[in-house]
Amino acid sequence: MAIIGISGSPIIDGNTDRMTKAILEKSGRETEFINLSKLKFFPCRGCAHNCATTAMCGVKDELHPYLKDIRDAEALVISSPRHHGDMTAWMYSFFSRLWCFLHENNSLKNKPVILISVGVKDIAKGRETFRASMIKEHKFDVLGEINYNSLNFPCLTCGAGDYCKSPHAGLWNYLNNDEEALRNFEFTPEQFRKWEDDEDIVNSVNKYAEMLSKI
User: What mean pLDDT is predicted for residues 198-209?
Assistant: First the structure.
């Protein structure tokens, strides 16, 4: 059975996707990669009469064909950017659909999982939401997690990054509300950090890939 990577990122082939794919590829195992933002799927509709006896979701959308593979996978790599300090809406909806596996027998119990979160700063809430979903409810066996603080603020691409002083503007806060620093900030390609350039993250990717290779 394959090791499956599931990304909740709307940025195709961004840091979240690339890190997930790297772990899969380096594991040397049969793998499958799913980017949830490319699928048209619904959150859980609460129609327990469709899944209580079958332990399989009855909502036939673009996520449905993957659910059996996820249930039967040897391990999962689950990744999400941190939006507003939390996992993305795609990942929330995905977790809700796993409810079908929680009836008489928890089909996902003790399944090995690697967690990945990517964001502009180190916010514990997103990581803890991940962990709560994995351990408290689904009772996955979390082998480890990677938390990459990319500092790739949305301000770098929004068009107002060099003058916006909104209290929610990441770059303005990162520069300690310094107007001169904001005006002089250079919006260059080098500002967009990649996990591949972070030695600690690279080492973590290699470590967890090797771990999955032995499952």
Answer: 97
